[in-house]
Amino acid sequence: MNEVAAGHPKESLFLCPRTEALMNVAKAVNSTLDLSELFELTLKESIRAIRDADGGALFLFEPRENHLICRSHVNFNEDVEQIRLKAGESFTGTCFSTRKPVLLRSLDEITAETQSMSETNLRLLDHSVALHPSKNSFRAMSVPLISATDQCIGVITLNGFDPEGTFSEEDLKLLQVISDQAATALEKARLHEELKSKNDLLEQILDFQQDLLLQMNLGSGLDAMLERLAVQIQKPLSLFTVYGESFETEASGNGKLLTEYLVRNGSRLIGKLLVYGDDGQALTETEQYFLQQSILYFALEINRAASIREVEQSFKKQLLDDLLSGMLTDDFIDRAQGLGLAVSGAFLPVAAETTELLNGNTIEGLVKKQDFMSFLQLEINRRFPGSLVIQNEQAFLLLLSVESGTAESSLNRQIRLIADEADQYIRHRRISTSANFAIGRPVEGMEKLPDSIEFAFKTLRLMKTTAFKGNVADRMHFGLERLLLHNSGKDIEAFLESTLGPLLEGGDNKNEELLKTLTTFMRHIQRPGAAAKELHIHPNTLQYRLKQIAKLLNVDFQNAEAVLNMQLACRLLEGR
Length: 576
Hints:
Strands 3-2-1-6-5-4 form a 6-stranded antiparallel β-sheet, with helices on both faces. Strands 11, 12, 13, 14, 15 and 16 form a 6-stranded mixed β-sheet that branches. It has helices at 2-5, 17-29, 35-49, 90-98, 107-114, 119-128, 169-218, 222-233, 285-324, 330-338, 355-359, 363-383, 408-428, 449-465, 479-485, 489-504, 509-523, 528-535, 539-553, 560-574, and strands spanning 55-62, 67-74, 84-85, 102-104, 139-146, 152-160, 237-241, 246-248, 256-265, 268-277, 346-353, 388-392, 395-402, 436-439, 443-444, 472-473. The protein folds into 4 domains: 12-194, 2-Layer Sandwich (Beta-Lactamase), CATH 3.30.450.40; 219-300, no CATH class; 326-482, Reverse transcriptase/Diguanylate cyclase domain (Alpha-Beta Plaits, 2-Layer Sandwich); 489-574, Arc Repressor Mutant, subunit A (Orthogonal Bundle), CATH 1.10.10. α8 packs antiparallel against α9. The protein contains 20 helices and 16 strands. The protein is an alpha+beta fold. Helices cover 54% and strands 16% of the residues. Residues 34-196 form the GAF domain. Pfam families: GAF_2, GGDEF_2, HTH_30. Belongs to the CdaR family. This is Sugar diacid utilization regulator.
């Protein structure tokens, strides 16, 4: 009657306790496909079936961690969930590695077996049984969980915390039968869980793909798409494109680079996706799948953005060509306004160049070039709203919209501030170059812009071909060079021949050395010491060479006209 009152079926009066226990376990473990519930039912029914069992734990082997991990427990506290057992560690680990049951009937036997546990695991075990008055397990037994494919997938361990009582061989056999039933149910539940997990993953993938398509349709851009992927896989990311774009999610680059994916358009490389994480962390198959799925969408968006950018750059280039050719039609004005240029008022063209950035053809070089162009656009928009930055061959044209009547000195100061900001930008990114800015003449009305733009680019060329030391030049510089540039090439060559002819004869290293000495001296004519320092020679050596030059050219360095001619000739040579 007690058994009936305790909730057992009436027919249990006609069954032996062993059979009754097995039936109860079978009903319990086959009543659910939820793994957590299955673990709990298995343990509770096992403890109910074996008279002197007071508690227990079910451990499963996790291949990724290569440890046995507690997935359910009865009459232990939560510390047991942190235990990580290696195969062969303690009696539970021994049961797993040997695939044989273990029966321990006394505290001494248990103590001896648990000595193989790590210090951390032993401390966690002691804490997990601290809720019992004795703080000890006086008997224990473990049986392996063997799957239908003959794989040992875990261990069931039962314990007795009451000093009175014992576990018998019959109890061990009963627990083994229960374990076999539980393993079968566990396999079925795992299969169901895997199927459910795959369905959930499929739903996530579909939602993820729809989100990326929505981002593309809304024109949110690569940065929003990258953020969506980072949220999905919970990893910092960076994306670089061959068009000079760079995007980063929060904390990107702070962790260890785990892997990189190439983004291709057919066989052509168009970008790189970098994935960061903690040291030693590996990407899961699911994370890799989401990353690979994203590559296609990134490639589509990179190409779409590139097409828009190419069209915009083409419009800018066509605008510049029309401007320089004087085609200032109503359509031209509309196109200029469409690109963001303020078409009324005054204008100031500035030519800019950074050789290393413009010559870089690698992804890194293109990123730097695009970043620098974006930097210029931001800086001029801040100081000169309604302006444009146009890439013109191997240089940039800053077409600045300025207020009519603004003093030229004030405009030049602002350009120098932009140049200083550019130098800081370059130093911050550790680029071994500097940016040069050549300022044209401020003009009223677009029809006067062509001459001023040409003036700016000529100034930029003179900054490179002369020994100019600064990074900003305006129309106050290179007056002599501009005057000479209006002469024909034949006239200039004739002047050079008549002035420096003997030094220009090729194939003579001595003449080359003397010509270099002369051009350097002419730049420092009032400071011969500075000339000697630049040439890395002693002042006496400089004087000796000058005497040789005077003799070879048949000139007198005390003759002002002869010195002026030599200065002009040397400047022309440096400006070639």
